[in-house]
Amino acid sequence: LAAMIGSADSLSSYADAMDASDRRALLDTILVEGERLDRYIQNLLDMTRLGHDGLQINRDWIGVDELVGSAARRLQRYQPDVLLKLDIPAELAPIWVHPALVEQAVFNVMENAAKFSPPGAAVEVQARLVEGELRIDVLDAGPGIPDDERARIFDMFYSVERGDRGRHGTGLGLTICQGMIGAHGGSVQALPGRDGRGTLIRITLPLLQPHPADDTDDS
Q1: Domain total of the chain
Q2: Closest-CA residue to 139 (of 161, 123, 156)
Q3: pLDDT tens digits, residue range 187-205?
C-alpha cells in the first residue's frame, strides 16, 4: 500500500517533469502492488470461508491442461520473469471439480514455488493419472525445506524464510490450497525435491463422476 501511495503521489506532483519511461515505471508499480494487495485480500476472504465452512463446491468439467494453463498465465502476468516448465499430457481426461477453486490452489502452489526458485531456474509442473487419482506435482529449484519445518508449511501464517527471493508472503497460500483441495476429498503434501534440492508440492485429487441428478440439472 505504501508503494502504491508513494508512486501515485509522485505522479500527482511531478508527472509533468518526468519522461514517459519514468511515468510508466510508477504506473507499473501501482498496478503490481494493487494486484498483490488484491490477492492478499482474496486470501483472507478464502480463509474466512474455509474457517466457517462457507466454501461451496460447484463442480463442472474442466481439462487439466486448461486448469494448469490458466494458473500459469495468471502467475506470468504477475511475475513476467518466472520460468515455467509444464508437462501436462494431452490424453488426460477432464476432471469433475470446482474449476475456480482448484485453479486457485494450483496457482498458490506455483506462486510459492516461484518465490523460492533462484533467477533463471524453472518451476516444473507435472500432471499424471496415478492409481485412479490425478496427481499434480509442482517442483521448485530452491534450497528445500528443512525436515523439521516441512510439516508446518501448511499452518496458517507460517512462512519459511530461507531461500525466499521475493517479498515475504502472507503465510496463507498453502493453507488455502490445502483447504480447497481437502474440500474436494483430495490432499496436499510437501516432499523433498530431487537430490535433496528444492521442494515438491504434490496435489492429489480423486477422479469423481457427477451423480445422475447432476447430469440432469446441467442438461
Answers
A1: 2
A2: 123
A3: 999 898 887 788 999 999 9
